[in-house]
Amino acid sequence: MAKTLTASAKRILQEVSAKLTASEKALAEPLLSAAYTEDLAIIESDTLAAAIKLTAEALLTHKKSDSIVEVQSTSDELGKPMTIVSVINENKPFLFDSVLGEINEKAPDVHMVVHPVLDVKHTAKNFEIVDKARPGLAREETVKTSIIVAVLPPMEDDARQALKNDIVSTLAQVKAAVRDWHPMQSKMNDIVHALTEGVTPARKKDIQEAIEFLSWLRDDNFTFLGIREYNYVGGEKTGKLVRADQPALGILEDPDIHVLRRGDEAVTTTPEIRAFLTGRDVLIVTKANVKSVVHRRTYMDYIGIKKYNEKGKLSGEIRLVGLFTSAAYTRSVKRVPYIKSKIETVIARSDYEADSHSGKALLNILEDYPRDELFQVDSTTLLRNAEAILALTDRPRVRVLSRIDPFDRFVSAIVYVPRDRYSSENREKICAALAVAYEGHVSAYYPAIPEGMLARVHVIIGRRSGETPKPTQASLERTVSNIIRTWEDALRDEPDLDAVAFNRFSFSDVYRDTVSAAQAVRDVDYLEKLSTEHPIAADFHAVTDDTDSKSSAALRIYHLGAPVPLSERVPILENMGFRVIDELSYEVTLKPTEPNGPISIFLHEMRLESASGDAVPMEDEGVLYEESFISVWAGGNENDRYNGLVLSTGFDARQVTALRAYGRYLKQAGISFSQEYIASTLIKHSHIARQLFDLFDARFNPDRAADPEEDTKVTEKHIKAAINDSLSDVPSIDEDRIIRRFLNLIEATLRTSYFQRDENGRPKQNIAFKFDPQRIDGIPAPKPYREIYVFAPDVEGLHLRFGPIARGGLRWSDRSEDYRTEVLGLVKAQQVKNAVIVPVGSKGAFYPMRLPHNGTRDEIYEAGRSAYMTFISSLLSLTDNLDGDTVIVPPRTVRHDGDDPYLVVAADKGTAAFSDTANGISQSHDFWLDDAFASGGSAGYDHKKMGITARGAWEAVKRHFREMDKDIQEEPFTVAGVGDMSGDVFGNGMLLSKQIKLIAAFDHRDIFIDPDPDPATSYKERERVFNLGRSSWQDYDTKKLSKGGGIFPRSQKIITLSKAAADAIGLDKTKASPTEILTAILKAEVELFWFGGIGTYIRASHENNSEVGDKANDPIRITAKEVRAKVLGEGANLGVTQPGRIEYGLLGGRCNSDAIDNSAGVNSSDVEVNIKIALAPSMRDGSLPREKRNKLLEAMTDTVAELVLENNYEQTLTISRTHERGASMLSVQKRLMESLEDRGLLNREVEDLPNDEELAERATSGTGLTRSEIGVLLSYAKIVLLDDLVASDVPDDPYLEKYLMGYFPKKMQKDFAENIRTHRLRREIIGTVLANEVVNKGGPSVISRFEDATGVLPSTIVRAHVITRDAYNLPQLNAAIDALDGKVTGDEQLALYKDLSDSQRTAISGFIKTVNDDLAIADHVSRLSAIRDALEGKLMSIIPQYLNDWAKERHQKFKGCGLSDAQAKRLALLPILTMAPDMAAIMDATERDILEVAQALFAVSNTFKIGRLEHLANLLETGDYFDGLAQQRALDTIHTARNAITISALSNSKLEAAEAVKAWHGANETRISRVQERISDLTDKSDLTVSRLTVAAGLLTDLVG
């Protein structure tokens, strides 16, 4: 009965019992008790239940003597599939091992197998397990039943069916063998009897030995499996065996079972069998060709016994198959019949006494001899082999003892090798070598390692066809000796072996087996060079085998610590132009006893061939390829197709890098071809690639430039001519274009750091190129003045400058494909920003190439900072330095441009904390700007701490609301925005008014909604969060939110809002995705939308998202038409696209642009730089230590902020004044744009300015330029004017020193006055201040209008502006109007500004027309001021009554606007006082005093009603710009005529002024009357036109002609 259940089996039985019937439960217990505990642990109860059910079903139908086999698929509750096998039989021998042998052959991984043998009683419908050991059950009629249950891995349907069929077949053979056991025993008795009693031709001794052997077999020394008889028919040479009529027994009952085969063919008779039959031996013992499926899975033993007839003649053969039992293998050879006679013969024929040492050794050899071989071998062969083995005792060596099977079906080879040389690998090689030698296959092998110094393997080589080869024993032994020859054996023969170095390493068996000793010695040389600093080495070398090696190469890669995956090796090699044919890898170990050991080193052996099929040059023994591979691996070069140039051109890795860098720049420049195609083009036309590099080398190699034997200019011409000749042979247009772009780039290059060296004298890894973009073909507008492109292993980047003195931020870009496009998009705004500072715009971006994958924030920061350092150092490597006034050229740099020492940088996205880093690099280069190189560092002005960017933008916001008559510093107003309180712009901005009601905001992490915030409470909480530093909206105290408010992570899929929150942002539902909520916030109906974070969120309706270039925000971006905010404040960059701003402005929205709004940051940085430049001489001479300077900088912080914010105030005011005049300015603005275009300074399309057709449409609709468009014109006007001023002598006028001094804080003006006067950028600073002031006061078109109207240079116009400004003390009036902020309506204040501006424009015009001398500015100011002073107090008593009335009316009006009485009076009289330049000219001509001149002038004006003419002319509206010029020209002519009449009157009389005019009138009364009448006709009878005004001007001129 079954064993007792274990605890785990009991638990499992309880689990499965609920799923089983009663009879199944009865079966379950014996099955589970027969299983091993560890097997049960890995099988789910569902599978066990299924196995029990399947077995129970099979057992239910089982009948005595039947075999039932079931193979079924099942799966457990986890879905894991399994296969169940159930085999039911009446118990008999060999069942379990035979079935298990079949299962193991088909499914080696058996999870569980049990084999209980049970007494089973069958009833009509069920079965019962009977325990006969229990009292009263011993006589029960039961069937002793074998139950085999196995659980296997899942099998396909076909495999399960095949397994079932094979088990059924196996059971049939078991059944046959067991059934015929006794008949086979009886047959053996008959055979023995026949040999004993019958007549045979054999020797009696042989007969007796055969009888003894067969009897021995019968006595349980042989497992009989089958017997079959054959009759011999025919003669000795042609006879054959045919099956006898006698029934076969056991498994041979099946006629399809053949025990002898030759190859795949079953045979009965062969020449070898015939030889046995006709020989004298009575029987033969050998191996069948068929494995047994019964009992043991091994080749069956075959015993052939001759049959004789009654006359003693051969009549046939009886074939017996089966398996020798263990006794046949373990019993002494002296006690095994058939073998013992061979042993006795061998001992007898040997020369050794049985008791001698050698005799005993010989017997031991025979006892240990392969027993199967002893049965088969003849005694002669056995003696020879035994003596050969005996000879090995004293000197172990190789021995191969082979024997060909008598039936020529196999070869038996016994191989001896020294024990220490034996291994499974060697055994496999020996077997394989024997199979080759005998042209067969390894059928079986039997290794043995007896005591002593030898190992043995008995190999059976199966033969299939043909005659068996007969190699000599010596040749076989040589082959085996070579196989077991060790690595050390070969190494000892190597002459270059460094044993000490070699012994540091352990080499794997695989390495030893496959690598030659000579190669191993070479490998050690490379292994010795590896270290943690240099963990990889490569050895390219020529192929040394017999193959055609011209296009092939070999490569060995050595790597410390870890294998190099194929996926990393192969792409590098393929990009180098190789194809990998095959590869092997080995592991070598630095021994534990060595320093740093143990450590693994991996060696990869690769066979390569040229992908193009061309030869692989090896003149340098592969050094170029090794350098290229290692450079790519180490990150010094990129893994791309450019590396194929090494193979195609012979370039080294650095030369390839130069062309790669040019190719990568072309990618940024917008070339349409892929990098792979560009590289492939260069590889394809390798001769041109060499020419291109030679041109580059000729232009920039300092050694060639210094060589007196070479004229590089001539060389360049020859190379370019050769390139052009070569291009004629390039058939592809695309390839031609690529090559020409490279040629163009090389010619547009001004400098490069390619030939510079590092501190160790090695070429720098980083390469920088300085371009003249104006000479580069195909790059998009705007084209910078200069551009530096940096290409390094860890960073790419570029810096665009739009003038020699340029400034702008460097940003950390995340746009690897188009960071130049990103920079171009930003530089337009930078140009506008820089209009208020000394330098023009510049912008740069760098893209870190090696940010850590999944790195922490700190790790990414440090990697980015490292890339930034490389980028900055590379920029400086091409920049001239200064030592005093001496220019220092970078070392080993050929310049194709002039001196260019000005390079400053600033922070931008991602680089806010890098200023100190940049300045540290500047100082390490001893760069003349020292820490003025990068503003905002620890010794500079911290923008966030100052809040300067936000404060500047807030000036713009206040301006918008002021003109809406709302004071946002005193009245609550609603705000939404982008950003969080940790940000500089957003955080500072949201603390600039305590009246802010922040309704909603978001950043990249969170969404903030506060439906009805209390301004005071929310202000304090925002302030608290801001002061935390690195905070987020999650730090905001939600208790301070109004009802319904909340803070929500953007990571949520769906956010539930309160109704109040949804209503606050205009969302019509309370459950929405973050994207929907963010879009709603952007559309929220608030008074101000404040941009303080990164991203572009509003576009024009005609733009698409791809044009915006900010994919991250595509899902939430809205159009300008959808914006409901009244004002946009762009404290951050690119919150709105320029077309979006324009559309918003045309719809009535109020916005400027990011460039206008956030220019304060740029401005403060520039002031910082110039302050530091001014203080540098004092630092250099020691009078101002750095620490003291830093304290001074800090002390001036507030003053710097005031200076900067004044620009924001003035600039936005100018935009407002220009915008307020609307469509009336379109013709003037159009003329400005055209003049800028004519000079090649403006591209309207690039700047999104309207074309002529659009301007015409605007004029028709009465729509002027929007504020954002005006901002662009404002910046261009300032930039162009600055250039014109710097090119003139205006900045050199001593009077303008006050502009220079006023640029700097007052704390510097006394102690460092001389430093300021000698400032390197003195002229540029003066020009910048002047350009800002002139354009701010006069508007963007001020210079172009005066140029067209007067024909004078911009410098003359600016001189006139300065003179009139100070002569009339206009700053005082401007300040008075500024002080009215929030006190009068926006319209009233703008009207005051306009009045003041118009007066100054008149004054400037009058000055330009009347003054033409070389007096200094100071002299003009002094003289004009004196005239003004003389007139101002007495003017009301001099002017005609109509002017008096007009002035009084203006006086009262201005007083009503908030000006003081004195200020209102001055402004009221200013248009009249602007006649002072005319009066000065009359004074000079007549030598009369000012009051007389004034009286005369006003008298003339009154006589000819010139005041009325001026009034009518000013009312005249002209849509055409040149009509306007004609109108102004006519007025100028009238004024000139008036002046001339006045001069004539005063010059021709000694009378008082009034009397002199009367006298002149009397003398010319007739003419005067006629002119007066005609002028009246022109002005009174119909509307005045430009032509009528021109005629009137001519009539007046005629009076003095």
From TrEMBL:
Q: Per the database record, which ranges form the NAD-glutamate dehydrogenase ACT3 domain?
A: 547-618
Q: Which InterPro entries match?
A: Aminoacid_DH-like_N_sf, GDH_C, NAD(P)-bd_dom_sf, NAD-GDH_cat, NAD_Glu_DH_ACT2, NAD_Glu_DH_ACT3, NAD_Glu_DH_bac, NAD_Glu_DH_HM1
> NAD-glutamate dehydrogenase ACT2 domain: from which residue to which, for each copy?
399-488
* Protein's GO biological process: L-glutamate catabolic process
Provide this UniProt record's keywords sorted from A to Z: Oxidoreductase
Every copy of the NAD-glutamate dehydrogenase N-terminal ACT1 domain together lies at: 30-166
* Domain NAD-glutamate dehydrogenase catalytic per the UniProt entry, residue ranges: 723-1216
Keyword Oxidoreductase annotated: yes
**Domain NAD-specific glutamate dehydrogenase C-terminal, first and last residues per copy:** 1262-1596
Q: Does the keyword Ion transport apply?
A: no
Pfam family name, one: GDH_ACT2
Extract the coiled-coil ranges from the record. Answer: none
Recorded superkingdom: Bacteria
According to the UniProt entry, its GO molecular function terms are: glutamate dehydrogenase (NAD+) activity; L-aspartate:2-oxoglutarate aminotransferase activity
SUPFAM superfamilies tied to this protein = Aminoacid dehydrogenase-like, N-terminal domain (SSF53223), NAD(P)-binding Rossmann-fold domains (SSF51735)
Put simply, this protein is called NAD-glutamate dehydrogenase
